[in-house]
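DM between two lab members

TW: hey, do you still have the Putative branched-chain amino acid carrier protein entry open?
JB: yeah, one sec
JB: this one, 200 aa:
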Amino acid sequence: MDLIASIFFAFTVWKLLREQFQDAEIKDSRIVKQTTIAAGCLGGIFLGLIYVGLSLVAALHSPVIDNIPPESLLTTLSFHLLGPLQGGIATIAVALACLTTVISLGVTFAEVLQKELSRFQMPYFVAIILVMLCTTIFANLGFSQLMSIIHPIVSICYPSIIVLTLCNIMHELYGWKTVKLPVFITFAATLALDFFTRLG
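TW: and the structure you got?
JB:
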């Protein structure tokens, strides 16, 4: 899910960087692109290190998390490794991180909904209410049921999203013109592969 979140975050970060560079009277778009790509690479490296660390901790303490629901893994590991007090603090930190992510994504997606999808026909407060209502409904489905809905969609769409991201980066950096065709080909190939996998 981090890839989808990063796309929405990238929209906001790109806009903020562009506005800051304009305020600083820096009009060279290459500087904005280079700064954005450098920040994205740095963030990707840090995120990768975090995932490697989480995977290592989970592997080293796998007996503790046997038969633990996926949504409780971090909490269980926190209390096991840090004790009741620090584990509670770590759990609160995770909850706050999730909350800030929801807020950031909600604001960003509401902005996209208002500006890009409705072409300013929808007031911003209506967009944010719709996003929060959808978020609340899905959040109350439970992790397992939510993943059963998301996983089939994500497994088909992710390769296309990755190709779309790469093509857009190539377009911005090198003027790459062909964007839709590789995305459609990737989507069709993924769909066909998923279909034949289910048949087999």
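TW: got it. The helical segments are 2-23, 29-60, 73-117, 124-139, 143-174, 180-199. Residues 54 and 119 are 41 Å apart (CA to CA).
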